[in-house]
Amino acid sequence: MADSLELDALWEDFHRVVNMTSAELSAWLRVRDAEERTEPLPEEAGSETGRQVLAILQKRRTDLTDDDLRVMREVVETVTERADLENEPVAEDADLRHQLMTIGHDPLKP
Q1: What 8-state DSSP symbol labels residue 61?
Q2: Confidence grade of residue 61 (pLDDT, cut at 50, 70, 90)
Q3: Nearest-CA neighbor of 100 among 45, 4, 28?
Q4: What pLDDT is recorded for position 91?
């Protein structure tokens, strides 16, 4: 498990880059996986990482597991590398936006 300062920094970074609420992310994962004839059960919607992010958003900091911390680091790294957090978002890249939304980051959300 990470030390307290490292955990605090990771918690802050994760909640800075994951700018969707748990309700928004849950709805997005269900919509993203819905097909014309089928729709997965809510707890099975989305990617494994998306479901893990959703579970982390619903936890208190003291309840995090080592696996949660690993996912949080991966999400922070992915969003930091793929999204331009300093500049205004560009709406033209819908594929990138949708990929980032699957892990809880909507580049068009203030």
Answers
A1: G
A2: very high
A3: 28
A4: 60
Place of tokens 């892990």: 103
Which amino acid belongs to residue 56? Answer: I
Which residues neighbour 67 within 8 Å (Cβ) at sequence distance 6 or greater?
A: 52
Residues 6+ positions from 22 with CB-CB distance below 8 Å: 54, 57, 58
> Cβ–Cβ contacts within 10 Å for residue 49, how many?
15
Give the tokens for residue 24.
């928004």
pTM: 0.81
Q: How far apart are CA 106 and CA 110, in angstroms?
A: 9
Q: Which amino acid, one-letter code, is at 68?
A: D
Count of alpha carbons within 13 angstroms of residue 102, beta-carbon side: 14
Question: Which residues are CB-neighbours of 32 under 8 A, at least 6 positions away?
Answer: 45, 46, 98, 101, 102
Nearest residue to 81 (alpha-carbon basis) of 54, 103, 66: 103
Distances in Å between the Cα of 80 and the Cα atoms of 37, 84, 86 are: 36, 7, 10
- Closest to 33 in 3D by CA, of 51, 45, 44, 41: 45
